[in-house]
């Protein structure tokens, strides 16, 4: 058994509202480094922690986290659609072992995922069907949000369980750092929007296109300095990355929902996916970072980061 980690920000605006060429070149270099790291490690299984953006999980039932034994991508923002190559046997083993460790894990036999899951698989592996994967949804959008300590406990339990599989396991955390995109909110929403957030009514092609254009426009406004949304916060982003680099994961237990939102924006809670991934790696023993990259990219509404880590 071996373990490794990649933390990778995602953004649906990549390729749609890109930064200056020199910024893009720095990001491409960091991402290519992560690809090389993954090729070197050659994972037999990827445990992928990612959020959802009201494409697969809705307020009718909104778990704080959920493990999939099968999953299909919806294809939002031009990302790939279709089934992921879920390793069902590994997923069932992880689910049993995590529940045995006292974590109240929800399990889905038909999870629907969006670009948060798809993009890292496309970027690192070239597609959603190239590597066996166990998808784990971590809520980072829908309030109320539970304490970050429970996400760390989830990651620890999955890391311990993964050690029993006797496989090379890559823990992959997908999410932005600080970012405040125009995500719908249930409180005060118009009836049609509220019904969609609760019941998960699929949008028409026109509604999906309109929503995606709203996100593109928000990135353009943030880059132009005309946005009223919270700006990217490099100081907070690097505090988060410092915590992971120092392997001081107990610190996240003191991160409050209110503090994270005030410092990092409404979708900063996607950092929970990184917390889970790092906790999983830490459960296999002490670790060290192999690489760390950060760039504030307002065009993508993201504090964009790439990290790789291995056991000591």
Explain the overall architecture.
With 312 residues, the chain is an alpha/beta fold. The chain is built from nine helices and eleven strands. It has helices at 21-41, 88-100, 115-125, 148-162, 191-199, 205-224, 234-245, 257-264, 271-282; strands at 2-8, 45-50, 65-68, 71-74, 81-83, 106-108, 111-113, 133-138, 168-174, 287-297, 302-311. An eight-stranded mixed beta sheet has the order 6-3-8-2-9-1-11-10, with helices on both faces. The protein has a three-stranded mixed beta sheet with strand order 5-4-7. A hairpin with a 4-residue loop joins strand 10 and strand 11 (302-311). Helix 4 packs across helix 9. It is globular, with a radius of gyration of 18 Å.
User: Quick one: how many beta strands?
Assistant: 11
Poorly predicted segments: none
Number of discrete helical segments = 9
Rounded to the nearest angstrom, the distance between the terminal CA atoms is 14 Å
Shape descriptor:
globular
C-alpha-based Rg, rounded: 18 Å
Q: What is the quaternary state of this protein?
A: single chain
What is the string of helix and strand elements? Answer: EHEEEEHEEHEHEHHHHHEE
- Major sheet: size, sense and barrel closure? 8 strands, mixed
Helix content: 25-40%
Q: What structural class do helix, strand and pairing data support? A: alpha/beta
Strand order of the largest sheet: 6-3-8-2-9-1-11-10
Strand content: 15-25%
Mean pLDDT: 96
């Amino acid at each position: 058994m071996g373990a490794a980690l990649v933390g990778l920000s995602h953004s649906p605006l990549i390729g749609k509202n890109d930064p200056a060429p020199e910024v893009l070149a720095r990001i491409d270099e960091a991402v290519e480094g992560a690809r090389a790291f993954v090729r070197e490690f050659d994972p037999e299984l990827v445990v992928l922690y990612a959020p959802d953006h009201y494409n697969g999980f809705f307020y009718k039932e909104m778990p704080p986290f959920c493990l999939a034994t099968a999953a299909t991508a919806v294809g939002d923002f031009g990302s790939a659609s279709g089934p992921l190559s879920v390793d069902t046997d590994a997923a069932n083993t992880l689910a049993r072992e995590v529940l045995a460790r006292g974590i109240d894990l929800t399990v889905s036999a038909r999870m629907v995922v969006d670009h948060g899951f798809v993009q890292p698989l496309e970027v690192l592996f070239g597609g959603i069907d190239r590597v066996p994967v166990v998808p784990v949804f971590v809520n980072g959008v829908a309030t109320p949000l539970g304490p970050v300590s429970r996400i760390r406990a989830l990651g620890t339990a999955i890391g311990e369980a993964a050690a029993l599989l006797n496989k090379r396991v890559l823990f992959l955390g997908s999410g932005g750092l600080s970012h405040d995109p125009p995500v719908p909110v249930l409180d005060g929403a118009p009836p049609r929007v509220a019904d969609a957030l609760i019941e998960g009514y699929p949008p028409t092609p026109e509604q999906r296109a309109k929503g995606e254009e709203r996100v593109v426009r928000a990135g353009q406004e943030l880059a132009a300095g005309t946005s009223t949304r919270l700006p990217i916060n490099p100081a907070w982003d690097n505090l988060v990355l410092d915590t992971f680099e120092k392997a001081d994961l107990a610190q996240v237990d003191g991160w409050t929902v209110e503090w994270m939102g005030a410092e990092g924006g409404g979708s900063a809670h996607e950092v929970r996916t990184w917390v889970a991934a790092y906790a999983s790696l830490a459960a296999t023993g002490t670790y060290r970072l192999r690489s760390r990259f950060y760039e504030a990219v307002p065009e993508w509404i993201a504090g964009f980061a790439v990290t790789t880590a291995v056991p000591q």
